[in-house]
């Protein structure tokens, strides 16, 4: 029984290995890119729209709404990053219905890479929204003593993101494999459905947490912009 898809080796030459995590990750990215290209090649602006375009608009609108509910101003600015995170993790879970497929998110290397993407994106969005000086100043507020604690917080939440997603996805696959070996078919089917639900929940949680971290990094800039409107408005 494989604990993670890292243990499934397709090809190896010396220390160079091509495992299932790499293969399924690139296959999943190829499917997402191809699907996006096919859906968006003939977008319509009138009342006559394809079912795929309607589905795409529903997904995009839902993601934008969730980003806005977190408190991020101009949610479409973050749509590309957060939307891609959600779709990748969700697609990795939904594809488990394909025989022989193992979700790459069941590997700690994949979830660590996703968490590192969040680690890099948070300061980038924070600096672009607040400026370099203001963002760096937040690490020493309210006193310079908080600098090491804020740095530890950045690292610990990144580790928590990676381990949480890895643990939930890996445990679901392990439970399903155990049930397949000791129970009739009906129970694994039920667990597969529950696994799909769990995967969607994990995709939602991962994306929302990333949005919360970005909102925390940009909130001062957003607050200034929100407060500047009434102050700048001329008196009636």
Topology as H/E string? EEHHHHHHH
The fraction of residues assigned to DSSP E strands is under 5%
Report the oligomer.
single chain
| Count of separate DSSP helical elements | 7
Overall, the morphology is globular
Structural class: mainly alpha
Number of DSSP strand runs: 2
Distance between the termini: 73 Å
Uncertain stretches: 221-236
User: What does the average pLDDT come to?
Assistant: 81
Query: Strand order of the main beta sheet, please?
Result: 1-2
Features:
236 residues; two-stranded antiparallel sheet; 7 helices; disordered C terminus; single chain; mainly alpha; 2 strands
Q: What would your notes on this structure say?
A:
Helix content is 73%, strand content 4%. It is built from seven helices and two strands, in the order ββααααααα. Strands 1-2 form a two-stranded antiparallel sheet. Helix 2 packs across helix 3 and helix 6 (147-182) runs antiparallel to helix 7 (186-232). The radius of gyration is 21 Å and the shape is globular.
What is the secondary structure topology, with strand pairs?
Layout (H helix, E strand, L loop, with lengths): L8 E5 L2 E4 H21 L10 H20 L5 H19 L13 H23 L1 H6 L9 H36 L3 H47 L4
Helix pairs in contact: 1-3, 2-3, 3-7, 4-6, 4-7, 6-7
Question: How would you briefly describe this protein structure?
Answer:
By secondary structure, the protein is mostly helical. It has helices at residues 20-40, 51-70, 76-94, 108-130, 132-137, 147-182, 186-232, and strands spanning 9-13, 16-19.
């Amino acid at each position: 029984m494989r604990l993670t898809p890292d243990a499934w080796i397709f090809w190896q030459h010396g220390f160079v290995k091509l495992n299932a995590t790499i293969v399924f990750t690139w296959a999943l990215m190829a499917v997402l890119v191809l699907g996006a290209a096919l859906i968006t090649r003939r977008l319509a602006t009138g009342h006559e729209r394809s079912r795929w375009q309607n589905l795409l608009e529903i997904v995009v609108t839902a993601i934008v709404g969730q980003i806005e509910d977190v408190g991020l101003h101009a949610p479409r600015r973050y749509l590309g990053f957060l939307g891609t995170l959600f779709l990748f993790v969700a697609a990795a879970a939904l594809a488990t219905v394909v025989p022989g497929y193992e979700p790459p998110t069941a590997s700690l290397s994949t979830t660590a890479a996703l968490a590192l993407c969040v680690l890099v994106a948070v300061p980038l969005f924070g600096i672009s929204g607040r400026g370099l000086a203001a963002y760096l100043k937040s690490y020493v507020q309210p006193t310079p003593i908080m600098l090491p604690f804020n740095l530890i917080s950045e690292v610990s939440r990144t580790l928590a993101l990676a381990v949480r997603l890895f643990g939930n996805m890996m445990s679901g696959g392990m439970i399903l494999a155990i049930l397949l070996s000791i129970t009739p078919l009906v129970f694994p089917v039920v667990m597969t459905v529950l696994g799909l639900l769990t995967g969607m929940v994990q995709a939602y949680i991962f994306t929302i947490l990333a949005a919360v971290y970005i909102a925390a990094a940009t909130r001062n800039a957003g607050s200034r912009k929100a407060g500047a409107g009434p102050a700048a408005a001329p008196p009636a």
